[in-house]
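User: Please run a holo structure prediction.
Assistant: Happy to. Please share the sequence and the ligand.
User: Here you go; the ligand is magnesium ion.
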Amino acid sequence: MKRILIVEDKTSLAQVLCEAVEADGFEADVAANGTEGIRKLADGQRYVAVLTDLRMPGADGIAVLRQSRESDPDCPVIVMTAFGTIENAVEAMKLGAFDFVQKPVDVDHLLVLLRRCQEHRELRFENLLLKEEFRKRHGLPAIIGDSPKIVEVSQAIQRVAATDSTVLLEGESGTGKELFARAIHQLSPRHARPFVAINCAAIPDTLIENELFGHEKGAFTGATARQSGKFEIADGGTIFLDEIGELALNVQSKVLRILQEQRFERIGGSVTLETDVRIVCATNRNLSQEVKRGRFREDLFFRLNVFPITLPPLRSRKEDLDALANFFLQRLMRDLKKPGLQLSGDARAALREYDWPGNIRELENALERAAILCEGNTIERSDLGIASTASVDDRLREALDLSGSLGEATERASRAVERLKLSDALKRTSSRAEAAELLGIAPRTLIAKLKEHGLGE
Ligand SMILES: Nc1ncnc2c1ncn2[C@@H]1O[C@H](COP(=O)(O)OP(=O)(O)OP(=O)(O)O)[C@@H](O)[C@H]1O
Ligand SMILES: [Mg+2]
């Protein structure tokens, strides 16, 4: 990364700055006023730093700073202030400016600052990847996000990891239940022992017992040798019962027994085995409701519900979107060998507007698909393929006139729908009788309505 955005309305100064940074090996992108600077930032170009004048007619340096914080929160912004405007500089620092320089600009000092920005940028970039590498080597998954909600969950996990308590992870699909289950294991004293995951939804009811408890040779046709179950394999470690809400009632009672006694038998076996496993389970159902409906054993629920943790949906912590998107982008840059990959400002806005019913997994998939589809290195809103589902409500709001009372607005909307239905029916049929039939109304009514709407002749 070498490019620097210079926003300065005085052409002579812009020229001097431009030459100075280029002589130092940077590339300069000059905007002649705040509005132009904001546009360049919103386009999603990534800069080493933004250097902006503070006082400019129209959009000023503060507006440029705001846009930069929004388009690329990590990009350092340096503001230039004239003598006597130090208060504005202080305000800029409060808003997150990296530093400020006074005019007349000391070019050498400025270049030192810019080089520091460059180091800061490259370090941040490497840091994220290093963190991931480190965590991978030590088995700790990278948990991204610093919203209060995710911090709270992370702290809960650290505290409970040290114990042997059963943990119940609840949350919508794609919110990171498995990721957190692994983190609990890795942070626990059991981390050197196995982490065994079982997806209760993926195994047919008739096989799950075999999966969990194993069998003795000859226990059933085809059981040609003794086989250990997951509970046996996980001894000393952690067993992750994913989608526990899908477990059949008869298997639930067996799981309950293990939890109570930590003992079980292999299918067809007479020896009782003792096991020392820590249970972490996850579900995207509401288990207490399942209990009420008689689909989940209440006694098992109480056993599992020792330390419940609810993972927040992505839509309730949109402040983590940028960090998550950056994290996935960096991984894609490496995996797809597209080093300059970036999101345009508008694409970032699209990410924020969307509701993410599939949560982080959906985000991860949307970015991967967009990274492959996009022309060049910039992912645009249209590459994300989420815009159309972004918000039906918003599109309706645009199309309808919602002013006035409830009665008035509804009346207007229903008339608009009626008109559309009528004219569509006329287009699709060759006679009024046919149109009336299609609409499910009497021909008389159709004629009256057409007249009312001024349709037909
Ligand atoms: N905080 C996070 N930081 C980084 N990556 C995350 C985070 N949370 C989830 N992910 C990633 O999102 C994807 C989905 O997470 P995970 O499989 O753990 O969700 P889940 O809740 O188990 O979903 P499901 O209910 O559909 O099984 C994974 O690739 C995971 O690595
Ligand atoms: Mg899962």
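The domain at 318-384 is CATH 1.10.8.60 (Helicase, Ruva Protein; domain 3).
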